[in-house]
């Protein structure tokens, strides 16, 4: 079988047939003319490079400054729609005037795919699609794709202290991208992924049709819940099922460095964490810190947890199941569920209005990779892993190791496109950041060596990866021309395993000309 990534010829035929040969000489001007004919006052939502607000709009939600340099390719225009019809018109004009469309909700794409392209492109920025409507009576909410997780959490918490949503801990992540890739967070062991709780959606397809769950069909509805964004259409809003949380939860942190048996404690944690009651989520954050010896560094493992209950229940539970941790009352704090999100985000837990601040976190350059671990690492393997954090280029490096099990063990691999479920001990998210561009090569090379080191411990049959931390090192599509199934499956099987084939079939059905495409979007089947 062969699959299509992007074919220039069909688009040129459409362009020439619609507007004549003159269009090919002035695609930029004609794109704007197209928008102005279809959208009243289109200039108020359109930012081109000669607009004084262009740079501020472009950079407003770029969270990886690695893709905000003078040499980074820039979009011809940024469209910030306010209505569904604006989205439909942007799709129409982009398709008919030869521009690739990149869709941005929160700008956290770690490879910049939502706002960078190597071919002429425009950005559809959903920043104005950020409404959150919470219905506590029916325990549901409608949230638009341009809202952040923080805005969703705040919207829930402002109405109830006994409902939550199992998405990620970073409060500035855009809902559109997060739900499109799955979405795992501190409620994951109790309730599964964020995508597991999507019950409806509003999508605009490549032909401008507005589809809901019933009209799009169950195949497409399955695909958009974890099959990746900017692939099947523009999802404008999601209807989600909220989940019960107690009014008081308990969080804790216990720090152990190499001199305090961090290696042995983590070795034991591997055997326990996925078996703990599902009301308890635990994670280990590994990073380089200052040693007690002046001028020296060590490696610290921060054992963190969130328990859906009180301290008095948590302490004996941990002392029985994991006495090696040495959890004490002074390590624990009781708070609301929404405050626990801020706690894990390393932010003050009050005021909770910080959840609405899209600029609360520092923006650095970064590279990320992920793994899913099914077998415990040896103490020697853990020691080697931790010692790598003492090398150069690791001042802003962190690995977040998140326990699975619980609800995740009960969900079938093909329930949604996200396949990493039963049998996974933990997910590892490796991140390295840097402040000076001259350090980019050093830091990225370190990350790649760390990933290579972990190959001995990752899933043996097929090394998995999490689509929400895209990694173009795994492979890419051809941005111009065809991408075969074999080429795309190099990266696609790592993210989606056996679900990749079904995603390709659905892509072929909904977007056969591959209008929605990027370096790691699902490619359609090439017509014979």
Automatic annotation (TrEMBL):
PANTHER family: OS08G0158400 PROTEIN. The keyword Disulfide bond applies. It is found in: Secreted, Cell wall. Transmembrane segments: none annotated. This is FAD-binding PCMH-type domain-containing protein. It comes from the Eukaryota. Its cofactor is FAD. Belongs to the oxygen-dependent FAD-linked oxidoreductase family. Its main location: secreted. It comes from Gossypium darwinii (Darwin's cotton). Residues 1-20 form the signal peptide. InterPro entries: BBE, FAD-bd_PCMH, FAD-bd_PCMH-like_sf, FAD-bd_PCMH_sub1, FAD-bd_PCMH_sub2, Oxid_FAD_bind_N. The keyword NAD does not apply.
